[in-house]
Prior knowledge:
alpha/beta
Amino acid sequence: MMRRSAALKAMADYDVSQRRACRLVGVDPKTVRRERVPDSPEVRTRMREIATERRRFGYRRIGLMLEREGICMNHKKLRRLYKEEGLAVKRRRGRKRATGTREPMPIPLGPGERWSLDFLAETFGDVRRFRILAVIDDYTRECLALVADTSISGQRVARELDSVIRLYGKPQTIVSDNGTELTSRAILRWQSDQGVAWHYIQPGKPTQNAFIESFNGRLRDELLNEEVFDSLRHARTMLARWRHDYNNVRPHTSLGGLTPAEARRSSRLPDGQPITALAINPTISYHPQGLSK
């Protein structure tokens, strides 16, 4: 370190070349060469800001956020900057879920054709447990409902599905596991009354319900593992905020960087008319917190 300082002083005071100064002091020129200034300082700063705000985003999703702001670059360079800034996200291992089929599952060809639903468990306060019912559209990846309560029965699930249908229209198929709430008489009666096909996946095969399992992973990774809920009301508020962000702000890689809401708006009906958010009766609002158990 002292020799490097001596060589730099000789270069500054006596206006000698770097090679000659290094030869006189006896230091390797590699240690004297100027430190390279980090390239793309503005991009690095913005990447750190996004990573601070969204701690579970990787370089691909950060790149999509940068593209929205008009900052485009090669993905290899973006990954290099991401690594140099030390922004790599530690992958969390989720819980393995055992879940239940009866007939081949149809492939969705448009919004509203197939929904998936599942339950998640979480705690608030002094280790009080509550459950979350998640409903998504498999085609647009849009989260249609996040219902949180200490207990959610089959009848409650049926009422929540009726509320979602009033907002988004009736799906052709719903996919779920073989949980007791989802195989109850209330749900079987609801299926018959609504005329909606219900597909149960095979026990121990959560990959057959991959869309909702992927959604559950994002929800747990980006919210449930990041927040400590003080009360059920607090949990419902945070879930509502995250759902709005997920549907309208967060880019989805499987949708080419679009948000689920943008994917739904970009879809077209056969007659060329854009699909709207509300299927019928747009005056009805959906408030899962206000419903009884």
